[in-house]
Amino acid sequence: MNITYLHGEPTPRKELEPFDVVQGSFHAQLYDINSLLDLPLANVRKLWKIMLSAAWENEKSIEQVRGWLPRAAENAAEDIRLAENALKDAKTAAAARHSENAAMGDGYWQKTVTDLKRMLKNAKAKRASASVIDNITRNLDSAIQHRDAPRLADRAVKDAQRRLTNCKARREKVQKLQAIFDDMAAKAKI
What we know:
It is a single chain. By secondary structure, the chain is mostly helical. The chain is about 70% helix and about 5% strand. It has helices at about 40-55, 60-105, 110-125, 130-190, and strands spanning about 20-25, 25-30. The chain has a two-stranded antiparallel ribbon with strand order 1-2. Strand 1 and strand 2 form a beta hairpin. Helix 2 (about 60-105) packs antiparallel against helix 4 and helix 3 (about 110-125) packs across helix 4. The longest helix has about 60 residues, at about 130-190. The protein is elongated, with a radius of gyration of 28 Å. The model has no long low-confidence stretch (mean pLDDT about 90).
């Protein structure tokens, strides 16, 4: 059976890696170990303290964390690399949009949009033919796109900068988690 998707192939679902911590009657389960990155550090410390205090019950979880932390660091580094490339591309695109806008003169597109809106209003008032109204509408849409292009490009740069900042913060959190786990495991002699 062939399935045709309207918006391209869907991205594959990310494999979830459940994470369990057990100590006596206490049982905590996360649907995905990557959720540890979303928890506050104090909560992760508490969870790991419980996990390491009952090492015999949590051998699998301890090994899971030991294997997950380097993968999380690699993923964070890859995300930063991708975010840096996206930011570079966004800045290049923004510079091109600003250059195109500057080539037409300051305020050219705003004046064009205003003029086309007035023309469209007059054409509708005079009951112009549908082809004339369609032509003015197409020109108006194009002028609006040109007018807004630099602003949209600047927004894309800000979004890319925000994404890069978030990726760097995530990498720092992974590094902190690695240091915390190493320290706690050394104290627990595991």
